[in-house]
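Onboarding guide, step 5: your first structure request.
Type a short instruction followed by the sequence, for example:

Predict the 3D structure of this protein.
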Amino acid sequence: MSAAPPTGAGSRPEPRSESRTAPLDGPRRAVAGLMPVWFWGVLAWIVVGRVLDPHPVVWFAGAAVLVGLSFVRPPRVERDPVEVASPLRGRWTVVNSPADQVPSHGIRAYGQTYAIDVLLPSPPGTPATVPWRGGFPRPETFPSFGRPVHAVADGTVVRVVDGRRDHRGRTSWPALAYLMTVEATRDLGGPSAVVGNHVVLDHGDGVFSLVAHLRRGSARVRPGQRVAAGDVLGEVGNSGNSSEPHLHVQLMDRPQPLRAAGIPFRWRDARVLPDVTDPSRATTVRTEITPGLPAAGQVVEM
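The system replies with C-alpha cells like these:
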C-alpha cells in the first residue's frame, strides 16, 4: 500500500535545535569545495616531478600539501534529526544507513554523513554472496529502475542534473573490481560525476535535500520551481557512482555537496516491518528498530 504524501504543517521539516558552528568553518568549506582542483593538482604535480625533476624535498612537500588539501572536509555539524517524508512509495530495503554507522558511506565527503541508500527488496532466497560470473546487467533489468522519486518536504528546486547516462550494473566480483577502478577517478569530475543525475531542494532554515543516481531524462522539475512534499522529482536510476539502480537520499546544510555538512534525519511515514528482512543486503541485520531510521537489511513500508 502506498503512503499518502503529508500535507499542511507536516509538509515542512520539523523544528530542531540550532547547529553549532565549528572553528574555521568557512575556510574548511572553501577548501573542501575545491576538492577536484586538488586532485587534479596532485596529478599535475606528478607530471612536474617527471618532467622538471625538482629537488625531492620540494617535490614531496608540494605533493603532501596537495594531498592534504584534497582530503579536507567540512566540519561535522551537531544537529537534532530533522523529520521529513519518505522519498519513495511501497516496500523497500535500506542499505548504507546511519543507523549502522556514521558516516553511513564511510566518508563525510559530498555531504553524505547521514545518507541512506534504498532499493527494492531482493526475491526470497537470494544469496548474500557476490557471484564471480556475469555482473554487468542492463539497468532496465532491475525492479528499482524507473520508480518515482518524491520530494521529502516543501521546497524550492536549487539544482537539477539530468543528462548523465545510466550505466550497467556491477553485481559480481569482477564487475565490482571494475567499479572500484572507475570510481577512483570520479572525484576528478566533481559532484555530478559521483552522485550522477540529481535534484537539490531548499527547504528553508538551512536544510537542503539531495536525491541522487536518478534516471537520465526523468527529471520533472527545474531550478527555481516550488514543489510540495510528495511531488515527483524524477525516477530511480543508475547514474554516477552506483553498483545497481537505487536511490541515494541525504539532507545537508548547503546546496553544494562538496561544501555541505550532512544533517541527520528520520522519515515520519516509513514503517519498519519487524518480521521482514533482506539478508542479501546486509551480512548482519539488526533486530532493534529505530523509528524512522531503518538499518541496513531492514524492509520498510513507505
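Each response can be followed by summary notes, for example: Residues 116 and 274 are 19 Å apart (CA to CA).
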